[in-house]
What we know:
The chain is α/β, with parallel strands linked by helices and 774 residues long. It is built from 27 helices and 26 strands.
Amino acid sequence: MSDTVKSDLQMEQERVNFVSMEIDKKKLKLQKNTGGVSSDVLELRKTFWEDVTVNMDEPDDVIETAASIKQQAELLSERERTFKQMDKQIRILERLKYSPYFGRIDFLETDEKNVDQVYLGIASLMDEHDENFLIYDWRAPISSLYYDFAPGPASYPTMDGEIEGEMKLKRQFIIRASDIKAMFDTGVTIGDEMLQEVLGNNANAQMKSIVATIQREQNLIIRNERSKLLIVQGVAGSGKTSAALQRVAYLLYRYRETIKSENIMLFSPNPLFNSYVSTVLPELGEENMEQATFMEYLNNRLGSEFDVEDPFDQMEFLLNNGEHPDYDTRVRGIRYKASLAFKEMIDRYVNQLSSKGLLFKDLVFRGEIIISNELIYNYFYSLDASFTIPNRMEMVRDWLLRELKRKVKQERSKSWVEDEVQYLEKEDYLEAYQELQGKDRYTEKSFDDFEQEQKILAEKVVKQKFRPLFSRVKKLNFLDMKGLYSQLFIKGAENQEVLLDDWIQICSQTVDTLANYKISYEDATPFVYLQDLIKGRKSSTGIRHIFIDEAQDYSPFQFALIQRLFPYSKMTLLGDFNQAIFSGATGSATVISDYEEKGEDVEKIVLTKTYRSTKEIVDFTSSLVEGGEKIEPFNRHGKKPSVLLAERNQLNGLILSKINEFLNEGHRTIAVICRTAAESKRVYAVLKDVIPVHLIEKATIAYEKGILVIPSYLAKGIEFDGVILYDSSQYKNESERKLFYTVCTRAMHRLHMYATKEISPLMNEVPGNLYELE
Ligand SMILES: Nc1ncnc2c1ncn2[C@@H]1O[C@H](COP(=O)(O)OP(=O)(O)OP(=O)(O)O)[C@@H](O)[C@H]1O
C-alpha cells in the first residue's frame, strides 16, 4: 500500500469515526425525545376519558362531547404518528452506524471553485447544526452521478434543470461496524471488485439490496419518471427483481409527500417469493409495499362458489398429461383464452347481452320461488337500454330489495313464523322487551303489549330468514354468472365464429368443467372480466404504482384486466421471454413479448448483462435459448456445469453424495429441482431420512437456508448456490425449453444435472466444451 493510499485510508477512517460519533449524538437526542413522546402517548391513553368532557343531557351537549372525543383522538394519533416516525429514524441511524456509506464522489460544478464531497448511504444525515450533509441519500438527485458516470465530465438532473460539472473522484467503500474493510477508487463502472465481492458470496434465504452496486442501466429503471408504462425485458439474473425493489424505495423517497408504501402494489409469482423479497425494503429503511399473487386476486373475485384451478395445477396438468386424449384441445384452448381476440369476443357477447340473453336465477324462499328469473329478466329489459348493463343491474337490485321488503311484511303473519318464534333465544325476547320499553310500552299507557311483542318477534324471525336473500341481491348474485360464461361457449360452438380446428371441443370442455363448479386457470381471467362488464366494478384509485414481476407469465388478456382495474396507476413490468414457462408450454402470447409499444408514455428497457451465475454457467445456459449470444455474463468464474448419466434407481444415492460435495465446497443453499410436484415429493421422502431437507410446495410461504427439494416452476425468481437437476432427460420437448432454461439459470455457483435415458435433446445445440460429462 503506497503512503498516499495509506493516508487516504486513515483520513477516510477518521471521517467514518467522526460520522459515527455524530450518529450516536443524534440517536441519543432522538431517544430522549422519543421517550418523551412515548410517555405522552401512554399518558394520553391513560387519561383519555379524563380529558374528554362527557355530557349527554341535551343534544348540544352530545355534539360537544363528540367534538371533544374527536379532538382528543386526533391528539393521540398525531403523537402516535410522531412516535412511529422517530422510531423509524432511530432504526435508520442504527443501520447508518453499522455502515454509514458505500460511496463517495467529488464533484466540481461548472463555474464553482469548491469541490463538493458527496458521501452516499442508505439515508441522509446532516451535521450537528443541520447545515451540511454528512451523508446523502442514494436517491437524492446528486447521487445519480455515482451510478451514471465515471470520473470526468458529468451531470445530473434537478427540478431546476441539468447541473453540469466534472467528477474528480469516485470511491467505493465496504464498511462494517464502522470499520472500513475495503476501499477502491473506480473508473468506468461501479467497481468490479465490489461486485466480485458481493456476487461471490453465498446465496441468502432472502434477497439483499443492491444500492451500493447498482449498474447504470439498472439505474435507468430505478429512476424512471417519465413513463406511465415501463416494460423491462431482462435476461435471467440481470437484476430485474432487484431493480424493481430499489425502484419502490426510490418512488417512496421521490414522492414521499404523496406516495406511501400502501399505494404501491407488487404482483409476485408465488407466495414463497413474497417472503424471499420481503427484507430488501426494510434493509433500506422503508416499509414493504402491498404484495399479492395474481391468483390471490382472482380467487378473491371469484368467491367460494367455484373450485378455481391455480397456475401451478395447470402447469402440473401440462407436465403430466402429454398423452391425455384432451391434452391438445386444452392447450389450444389455453392459447386462445390468453389472447385479446378472446377478450374481443367477450366484448361482442356483452354488447348483445345489452338487448337480450342475460341469465338470472330465481329468488327462492323456503323452497318456493318468490321472484322468478323471468320476472327479473323482463324487469331488466324493460329498463331504458341507453343505460349501461351495470347501471341497469343496480336498478334491478334496488327494485328487488324493495320487493323483498314487501315480502317480509307479507310473510310476518304466516303460521310458520308463529312456530319459529317459539324457538327464539332468550336474548331475542329480551331485546323485544327493551324495544317495547323504549317505545313507552309496559306502562299504564299500554294495553296490547303481548301482541306488540309477538309482532316484533315475528319480524325478527322473518328478517333473519330473509337475510341471505338480501345479501345475495346486494351482491348482484341473482345473476347467473356460471350460466352466462357457459352460454358464451354454447353459442360460440353453434356460431363457430372462431377459426380453430377444435373450437367445438374447446367449447364443450369448458362447459363440462363449469358444470362441476370448476374453473380452469385459463378461464379465471375471462370469467372475472365478463363478470366486471356485467356487474360493473369501480376501478381502484388507492394504488398509484403497480409492479408486475415475472411478467412473461401474464397473458395479454390478463394484463388488459389489470390495466382496466388500475387505470390511474403507473406500471412497471419486468420479465424475460426466455423464461415464459407457462406460455412456453402452450405457445400462448405473453405481455412481455407481444405488447405493442404504443404512445409516448410507454418505454421499454432491455437488460442483457447478467450477474447471478458464474461465466461458465451463463455460457452454458445462454446456448440453450435463441438469441442467447446476446447475454453478457459477469466475469466471475467457477466450475463448468456437469452432467452425469445414471440409472434412475441410482439417482437418490448419487444426489446425496452431490449434495455433500456442494456442502464441502462451502455452499449453503442447495436446490434439488424436480420437474413436477409428485417427483419432488418422492425425492423428499427418500432424502428426509438421511439429511435435513425442506420440501417446497405451491403453498409454502417461507423458505430457509439449507437443502431444498422444489418443483421446477416454483423455483423461478429465486436463486441458489448450487442446483442439482433431478433428471434432466425429462426435459425433452421444445415446449419445455424455457422451463429447462429457467431451472438451470437458478444456479449461482454450481449446476449439476443427472440424466437417465439420454442427455436432454434440448442440449443438442450446446457445444460440448461448455459442460463436463462426468
Ligand atoms: N447491481 C447489482 N449489484 C449486485 N448484485 C446484483 C446487481 N444486479 C443484480 N445482482 C444480483 O444478481 C442476482 C439476480 O438478480 P435478480 O434476482 O434481481 O435478477 P432477475 O433479473 O430478477 O432474475 P430472474 O429473471 O432470473 O429471476 C441477485 O443475487 C442480485 O442480488
